[in-house]
Amino acid sequence: MELLRWPLRVATATLLCGPLLALYWMDPWELACLAVTGVLHVEVGLRLWRERPDNRIGLLLVACGLVWLLDAWGRVALPSLFAAGMMLSIVHDPMHLHAGLVVSSGRLRGRWERLVAAAGYAYWPVIVAGAMVAGTLSTGLLLDLRALSYPLVGVFLAGLFIVRYRRADRAERHVYAPFWAALAVNGLCTAMLSTVTYGSGHWPTALYALGAALIPVGAALSMHRVERRHLRRARDRERRRVERDVHDGVQQRLLAAAMMLRQDDPALVARGASEVEQAIADLRDLVRGMNPAALVCHGLSGAVAAIAERAAVPVLVDDRVSHLTLPEPVAVAAYFVTMEAVTNSQKHARAGRVSVTLAASGGRVEVTVHDDGIGGALAVPGGGLHGLRERVESCGGTLRVSSTRGRGTAVRAVMPLAAS
């Protein structure tokens, strides 16, 4: 992903600064509509792709943005091929449909969703192929077919997303409402332009650009709500864990100790005192689970060094943050990232060597753990890596796992130094 991020941005800037500026410099209003919509798709898509690589919506938005900018260039450079937004109907609209199907799960789920997505992509190629076989292929024919069929397609898609909305629970409706609403508005704008006429002047471009621009905005809002929901759930799980540990351990010991200390039997009193001491030890262990003792006493550098010393495989530590005082949430998250990644390297990756790099630059701290093991690690829901991602994201950071089979695993966490 990192290798593709800047080339895609360069391609977007090239399309803007080159062909679009050359073709639309006499019409700044239309240039602004086209450029803003395309850049929004690409930039939001890149951010979502980086933050949630397991969800296809980021990749789809990037592709939509590039297709949009190419279409804007083609409508002037090759008007016979790109007339009246037909290329957007053929490629761009099916991608938006695909994004609407995968936004909640990251991928197409089940045969029905795959069938709908495939129908969206195949709709225009089948019509064009049929027109070519009949020998009646023309832009006017395609526009007439679009005007006749898009209302029916719109009704079908509206029904599809209404059913999905009704089946979703209250929390899911709140999370994905911005994206679904953006899809609905975009569909309305598309239907108006396709059914009535594409028209002339600025209003068709402005209307279509408005509908399309709302989709990356809605996607960003929905993904933000998803992250907030994950953080709330992570906090709730942690609170329940602490409550359970206190109830099952410390509370039971203190109740037993209270009963023993009320007795006149010296042996029971001694046992009660022992229970109190054990309860104190349990509390100490509980607190260490929240903020590890090594981290409290020696800071992140000392705690990571202790992890390296205890590891069963050689661990090389490159520490470049020993001179910094990190915020407590960042230090704790960095510690647990290191500990979980090193532990996984020992237990699952069959690594022969592990390297840990702690670095800080540009107001961010980066923790990278790399091993030479078998690779193939996945951040599955409920697993250790998934929990680490939630912990890092609670600090406003990102966690990425690169694990190609046979090439080892790299876990990289980036967090802002200003996290609180």
TrEMBL record:
Gene3D superfamilies from the UniProt entry: 1.20.5.1930, Histidine kinase-like ATPase, C-terminal domain (3.30.565.10)
Reaction(s) the record says it catalyses: ATP + protein L-histidine = ADP + protein N-phospho-L-histidine
Record organism: Micromonospora echinofusca
UniProt-listed Pfam families: HATPase_c, HisKA_3
Class of the enzyme per the UniProt entry, highest EC level: transferase
InterPro entries: HATPase_C_sf, HATPase_dom, Sensor_HK_TwoCompSys, Sig_transdc_His_kin_sub3_dim/P
Keywords: ATP-binding, Kinase, Membrane, Nucleotide-binding, Phosphoprotein, Transferase, Transmembrane, Transmembrane helix, Two-component regulatory system
Superkingdom of origin organism: Bacteria
Histidine kinase/HSP90-like ATPase domain boundaries: 335-418
GO MF terms, alphabetically ordered: ATP binding; phosphorelay sensor kinase activity; protein dimerization activity
EC number: 2.7.13.3
One GO term describing the cellular component: membrane
Entry-linked PANTHER family: NITRATE/NITRITE SENSOR PROTEIN NARX-RELATED (PTHR24421), NITRATE_NITRITE SENSOR PROTEIN NARQ (PTHR24421:SF10)
Spans through the membrane: 57-76, 82-103, 115-135, 147-165, 177-199, 205-223
The Signal transduction histidine kinase subgroup 3 dimerisation and phosphoacceptor domain, residue ranges: 238-294
UniProt protein name: histidine kinase
